[in-house]
Amino acid sequence: MADRVTGLPDQARCVIVGGGVGGAAIAYHLTAMGWTDVVLLDRSELTSGSTFHSAGLVGQLRSSPTLTRMMVDSVATYRGLADETGVDPGWREVGSLRLAASPERMEELRRQAGWAKTYGLPMELISADEAERLFPLMVTDGVRGAAWLPTDGYLDPSGLTQALAAGARSRGATILPRTRVTGIGVERGRVTGVTTERGEIRAEVVVNAGGMFAPEIGRMAGITVPIIPFAHQYVVTEPIEGVTPDLPQLRDPDNLVYFRPEVRGLVMGGYERDPSPWSLDGIPPDFNGKLLAPDWPRFEEISAGAVRRVPAMHDAGITRLINGPEGFTPDNEFILGESEVRGLFVAAGFSAHGIAGAGGLGRQLAHWIVDGEPELDLWKMDIRRFGSQYRSQSYTLARAIENYATYYDIHYPNEERQSARPLRLSPTYARLTELGCAFGEKSGWERPNWFESNAAAGDEGLRPRGWAGQHWSPAIGAESLATRNAAALFDETSFAKIEISGPGSLPFLQRLCDNEMDRPVGRITYTQMLNQRGGIECDFTVTRLGEDRFFIVTGTAFGNHDLGWIRRHAPDDASVTVGDVTSSRACIGIWGPLSRQIVQSTTSDDLGNEAFPYLTAAQITVGHVPVTALRVTYVGELGWELYSPMEYGELLWDTLWEAGRPLGMLAGGYRAIDSLRLEKGYRVWSSDITPEETPYEAGLGFAVRLRKEADFIGREALVAARDAGPRKALACLMIDDPRSVALGNEPVRVEGHVVGRVTSGGYGFAVERSIAYAYLPPSLAAVGQRGEVEIFGDWVGCAVSAEPLYDPEGTRIKG
Question: At what angle do helices 354-371 and 65-85 cross, to 10 degrees?
Fold first, then answer.
């Protein structure tokens, strides 16, 4: 019921805080799904944050399948808004051009054209002359080609927001401008509603869609939303001869600029190398519908690039320079999803592509809220991807500056960010450095990619062609083969580690896991946790350390995700305790045919097969170090993960290093691990397996126990999937040319038709072949099926192979 004086309802099913394009899109899609009791609040007027000064470009092809699908969904929404709502968002489907002015940029376009095939986008590569015919104002100096996507376009951001709001309002949503939120209620970890200057609204769901204000709104509930406002500038020109409203968009990343028509003039902006963060001490409370003063000196770099590509810009009259703050995240991806406060969702950090993605993200957030999970794999945009280090504004700022400054750079696979490093260090860090470690970074951890001290033992002639040969070393091959032939020592301290304990821990895990968890103490179980659709939300091992104590080890980057999923389903009766123990335990992995001999020489504990079989755990002592030893492998060789309290980590490494060096053991890095796991067919969550695939489709049906006594989340969907048969199957592809290495997202075709895309790929040093994994129609996934993978514009032959490629009987693991 609404207050008759203020007009403010006292309760709602969902309150959305923020009346920009994101908030309006979420209200639009929520009401389309039947949630009519929705309230949208804004501190001022709709679009008074960053939306009103957006440049309004809509480009669909992005670096990930999920983001591209969201952009495609956005365009589908925008096309019909005017007819549906009576409010015209100004959508003009004029197409877009993206230029390449260097050989490397042309390679990037070829790669993107391959992606477009897998997404069904009508993108084509055209010549410089063809690009000039589409955009006659440009000069083609240095242009080697362009990508043309005719279904891109532009619109009026304010008109779009008003159209989305009209659609939501017509289905029952209440939209209240000039209603500032001053607090968010939280009780026992769950949101209860919001407090405004006009009163309180109780609600079971609250969405923080506050844009650059989202960190401030998040703090009201005690959550961190890592967003930095940057001053982003563009100009609007007076009419220029030859410009019409149907001129396509033009992006010239080598000159850091973009263009689109604006009536008879041009909008021109870009991403300068010296970005300007704004208002780090807090956004003024009255900053509504305002712009910043023009900063012409900072715009000079952009202007110079614009004139080089479009000479008419030199003499064009400028009607205004728009300098408006926009919220950017540390990785230029959206921040979406449910926070650690249950029922409190975030949809912010649009990083200058919120207009392009609003329709799609609104749909995904609506499904997340209504169904409990989004339709797509949104891990790369999930708020849970950010660890506790992002509570530091200085850390967030350093990462955001680096990403903004390199927005238009070519980002090669396996590229490492350099800002705000080092941060999280293993106790072996000094030892790894002494060995010439080439460090990478993940979730703030410094991790060994490879060791240059091993490069001389590798083969430079195996360097892959093209991009796959960037950020590569022959040391990777040396470390891989040492693991196969002798042994290698790996620091895996960065692995995320979760402990679940308490009298309710077993039934809790039985409910969450698709495998049987009621196994003897000391047993290790490989399992997945599924969503209601049967899709894979988590993928890890669980070790039963005691009757009511379980130890989960998952990927470095997935710890927050998996913790969030587990805690979201935890009972409220205190029968289960969920703890993140990552930073308390070092992990050293040792694998290879000599690994037993090496470790046995340091301990009096029996490591023989009978005493210590595969997939079991035991408490042992290595030298002077107490260790929890897990006999598991992600590389397909005999060996152990050895966990010790963090303070013993350096001594544990030293003890094993001293024992293994005389036998030819090398230090190994994560790039070798990735090669080794490809040879064994081990999956990677977030690429090979995601919330969109079932275990059956991923080839992991062996880990499913449909007949276990306990019911589990996703079981009903799995039964239906089993009975219906798989929609697709993950297939192992052997690529004919060993030096043509797929990196992910490359299209796969059979008999001239694109039928799938690569999920992950690399070179297997033991099998001496280029390996790729791809989801294919089941009828085309049989062993021996021939096909082709497009690698930088060249179709390279491949064949579906039986897996695993290496040691198919698993004798080396169990020996």
Answer: 90
Q: Express each pLDDT in 514-542 by its tens digit.
A: 999 999 999 999 999 999 999 999 999 99
Query: β-strands 769-776, 786-791: how paired?
Result: unpaired
pTM of the entire predicted model? 0.95
Rounded Cα distance, 621 and 619, in Å: 7
Is 317 buried (19+), middle (13-18) or exposed (0-12) by CB count in 10 A? exposed
Query: Which candidate, 379, 326, 440, places its Cα nearest to that of 64?
Result: 379
pLDDT tens digits, one per residue of 153-210: 999 999 999 999 999 999 999 999 999 999 999 999 999 999 999 999 999 999 999 9
Catalytic (active-site) positions:
232, 258, 539
The predicted-structure confidence for 427-445, as pLDDT tens digits, reads as follows 999 999 999 999 999 999 9
| Chain Cα centroid distance, residue 573 | 33
Question: Rounded to whole angstroms, what are the CA distances from 209 to 42, 206, 223, 374, 753?
Answer: 10, 9, 14, 17, 41
Contact 777, 761 (CB under 8 A): no
Q: 26 near 14, Cβ under 8 Å?
A: no
DSSP calls for 734-798: EESSTT----SS-EEEETTEEEEEEEEEEEETTTTEEEEEEEE-GGG-STT-EEEEEETTEEEEE
Query: Tokens 């104590």 — which residue?
Result: 549
223: tokens are 């959550």
Residue 792 binned pLDDT confidence (cut-offs 50, 70, 90): confident
Q: Do the bridges between strand 199-208 and strand 11-17 make them parallel or antiparallel, or are there none, so unpaired?
A: parallel
Q: Within a 10 A sphere around the Cβ of 383, how many other Cβ atoms?
A: 30
